[in-house]
């Protein structure tokens, strides 16, 4: 798509080493950050509030502990002391990462609290995208904690798929 639409090079760089850093992050995030961010959202809000299914305190604690470990890997391995995940410029890796991180934020998790490097990175990503667009893109997920309970017929249709997804 970057070739078809001729987007600025920083989003998905032509330089092979820079592109490899973006690709490395994207490969990792799918089974790590994405998984743990979604599980935090579902265990903290969507299951108990939206679907009315209890989540044990032990399960929630384990989920949030896994998320914390994943956030540490994100900081230590990918962000390090760089401005953005793949280098000095915002890239697709940053957009994907911030999108995933906003899921637990929407559930009320303070993922940036106590993580100054991650908090400053978030500010950089928001500035690169533009504050208005950033807020618009995350408007729905940031309201997740205020979800109304699902209709019982919707709940029945969703439960098996949801449980399979968050395993």
Question: What report would you give on this structure?
Answer:
The chain has 167 residues and is mainly alpha-helical. It is built from eight helices and no strands. It has helices spanning 2-5, 16-31, 33-50, 57-79, 92-106, 116-129, 131-138, 152-165. Helix 3 (33-50) runs antiparallel to helix 4. The protein starts with a helix and ends with a helix. The mean pLDDT is 92. Belongs to the GST superfamily. Theta family. This is glutathione transferase. It catalyses: RX + glutathione = an S-substituted glutathione + a halide anion + H(+).
Query: In DSSP terms, counting alpha (H) and pi (I) runs of 4 or more, how many helices?
Result: 8
| Structure classification | mainly alpha
Overall form: globular
In terms of DSSP E residues, the strand content is: under 5%
N-to-C span: 32 Å
EC number: 2.5.1.18
Pfam families: GST_C
Keywords: Cytoplasm, Transferase
Family: Belongs to the GST superfamily. Theta family.
Summarize the structure.
With 167 residues, this protein is mainly α. It is built from eight helices and no strands. It has helices at 2-5, 16-31, 33-50, 57-79, 92-106, 116-129, 131-138, 152-165.
List the helices and strands and how they pair.
Elements lengths: L1 H4 L10 H16 L1 H18 L6 H23 L12 H15 L9 H14 L1 H8 L13 H14 L2
Helix pairs in contact: 2-3, 2-5, 3-4, 3-5, 6-7
Structure characteristics:
mainly alpha, 8 helices, 0% strand, globular
């Amino acid at each position: 798509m970057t070739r078809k639409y001729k987007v600025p090079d920083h989003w998905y760089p032509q330089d092979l080493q820079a592109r490899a850093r973006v690709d490395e992050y994207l490969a990792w995030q799918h089974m790590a950050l994405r998984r743990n961010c979604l599980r935090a959202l579902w265990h903290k809000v969507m299951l108990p509030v939206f679907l009315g299914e209890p989540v044990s305190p032990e399960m929630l604690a384990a989920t949030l502990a896994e998320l914390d470990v994943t956030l540490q890997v994100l900081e230590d391995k990918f962000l390090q002391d760089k401005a953005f995940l793949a280098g000095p410029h915002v890239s697709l890796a940053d957009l994907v990462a911030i999108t995933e991180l906003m899921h637990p934020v929407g559930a009320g998790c303070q993922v940036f609290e106590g993580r100054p490097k991650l908090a400053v990175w978030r500010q950089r990503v928001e500035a690169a995208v533009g504050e208005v667009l950033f807020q618009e893109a995350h408007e729905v997920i940031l309201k997740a904690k205020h979800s109304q309970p699902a209709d019982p017929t919707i709940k029945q249709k969703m439960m098996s798929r949801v449980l399979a997804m968050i395993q």
